[in-house]
Amino acid sequence: MKFLHLEEQLSREEIKKLQLVRLKSAVARAKKSPFYAKKLKGIEPEDLKSIEDVKLLPFTTKEDLREHYPYGFLTVPKSEFVRLHASSGTTGSPTAILYTENDLNTWADLMARCLFMVGVRKEDVFQNMSGYGLFTGGLGIHYGAERLGCLTIPAGAGNSKRQIKLLKDFAVSVVHIIPSYALHLSTVFEGLGINPKDFNLRIFLIGAEPHTDETRRRIEEIYGVKAFNSYGLSEMNGPGVAFECEYQNGMHIWEDAFLAEIVDPVDLTTLPEGEVGELIMTTLAREGMPLIRYRTKDLTRFLPGECPCGRSHVRIDRITGRADDMIILKGVNIYPMQVEKVLMSMKEVGQNYLIELYKEGHLDQMRVKVEIKDEYFVEDMRVLKALQSKIAKNLREEILITPRVELVEHNSLPKSQGKAIRVIDLRN
């Protein structure tokens, strides 16, 4: 069996027809909420004649969610909701998403489709190394794995030696893990003198933070697995929005559940296929808290052409960063992913790095702290200076400025149990 659900087999024409029906229904539902009752005033579902008419609808932002926290977006009585997830923001109101029982079932089905698409089957043992709680990554993928019928281990984040013991004792074959933690865990394997390739691992599901293809390939080489990129955000459910298929050539968005657009992040005009812009998402199947044209701030592009897997659901490229993550230094626009791309392609570089922005007099400067593998971190200063210059030169070729490169010992930079902190701004 190649497909888990009939929706995966829809043609482009069938997808668009279904999207229009569901978009009209989503608008009708949304207008029952306090926020959209005002926001969509004067707009009716019957005004939408084709899926392109989504442009008639206003955008929704994270600021809207915060301003109308906690219940301003609900379309059914509070008693109908059974779950809440929220962002981990430390300033101001968080963004909270509430789910009805039907919403949770839809989410589990979408996640099960993602897992099945990359080759996960009922016979697999699945270890979830993602954080649980208000963060969507833990429970979202957990329920998808159980829906598929896998033996599911809710290991949670951190406690690396316990993670390794579970991997070994239960012959785990599939793992969900944040890319930066996968790289860190490899150093724990190394310290224990254990080769992860000797385990039963075959599939890694990686996501939750932007990462480059160089990082993915490094993870695959270390563990002897196929690592599949995924995309999700809490406002759209969490994981399960888009996933790579077996061909690893872009992430299929489940268009029966979500309507995706790519727009210019400045003037918000629609961009043609293939151009990088901000991803805009509309929920088509959420019952209790639909969102219309939500500005994700994530930068990507639609990939042209058909996928050999046979699915017609549109593919997006990996997330290259966030519209608000761009660093402007000496008049040059820089994204952290550009730095990672360079570093992870170099054999001398270890598993971690840190970008620091600071002032030197009145000038903004960038310092990149880079962990170096033990075999390359030698006492000969001439060798280290040459490596330092090599990294700086490679970075300049990619980001057009020369940062100050600081080489540090392997496994010496701070580690995070959750999403990696890659940029620290010291300028203020």
TrEMBL record:
Protein name (Swiss-Prot/TrEMBL)? Phenylacetate-coenzyme A ligase
Gene3D superfamilies found in the cross-reference section = 3.30.300.30, N-terminal domain of ligase-like (3.40.50.12780)
Tell me which species this is from: Desulfonauticus submarinus
Q: Where is the AMP-dependent synthetase/ligase domain?
A: 87-281
Q: Name the reaction it catalyses.
A: 2-phenylacetate + ATP + CoA = phenylacetyl-CoA + AMP + diphosphate
Looking up SUPFAM superfamilies in the UniProt record yields: Acetyl-CoA synthetase-like
Q: Which UniProt keywords apply?
A: Ligase, Nucleotide-binding, Phosphopantetheine, Phosphoprotein
Q: In which pathway is this protein known to take part?
A: Aromatic compound metabolism; phenylacetate degradation
Function according to Swiss-Prot or TrEMBL = Catalyzes the activation of phenylacetic acid (PA) to phenylacetyl-CoA (PA-CoA).
User: Can you give the residue ranges of the AMP-dependent ligase C-terminal domain?
Assistant: 331-427
Which GO terms fall under molecular function for this chain's record?
nucleotide binding; phenylacetate-CoA ligase activity
Q: Name one GO biological process term.
A: phenylacetate catabolic process
Quote the subunit structure annotation.
Monomer.
Q: What class of enzyme is it?
A: ligase
Task: State the family it belongs to.
Answer: Belongs to the phenylacetyl-CoA ligase family.
Write the Enzyme Commission number(s) for this entry. 6.2.1.30
User: So where does this one cross the membrane?
Assistant: none
